[in-house]
Specification:
By secondary structure, the chain is an all-beta fold. The protein has one domain. The protein contains no helices and eleven strands. A hairpin with a 2-residue loop joins β5 and β6.
Length: about 130
């Protein structure tokens, strides 16, 4: 099979009060649309020379611990996906799976290290 390029996530994730963030980021694929505004529904790894199509997941969850993205999980380069012209968005959740921020604006994965959009993460307030 053809080699698929993957990217590790970089960047520091913190609450807006400066405390490091522990939680998750969900990376969703944004599909392109055709001329009638109909989106594709399946995602595949670009076929190798034998034209073997491998279906890919349309989202992944990456843990964040101490403000750092887990390095055991990578994102596939957009250029290695079919259909082409896909992008990613990021949605941030805390450890209790409470939605904190996102989805972000879409972005592309094109290098071995990618810094996704990291929005302001409003810290919980004491009552």
């Amino acid at each position: 099979m053809a080699n698929t390029n993957t990217s590790k996530l970089a960047g520091a994730v913190a609450w807006d009060d400066g405390a490091t963030f522990d939680g998750y980021v969900k990376m969703d694929i944004v599909f392109p649309t055709d001329e009638s505004a109909t989106a594709w529904t399946n995602l595949y790894k670009k076929p190798d020379s034998d034209l073997v199509a491998v279906e890919l997941p349309i989202w992944s969850v990456i843990p964040i611990k101490g403000g750092e993205f887990n390095q055991a999980t990578g994102l596939i380069f957009n250029a290695d996906m079919v259909p082409h012209n896909t992008s990613y968005t990021a949605t941030y959740y805390d450890q209790t799976l409470k939605l904190i921020a996102g989805p972000t604006d879409s972005f592309l994965v094109t290098a071995a290290e990618t810094t996704p959009p990291i929005p302001t993460l409003p810290a919980p307030n004491a009552v």
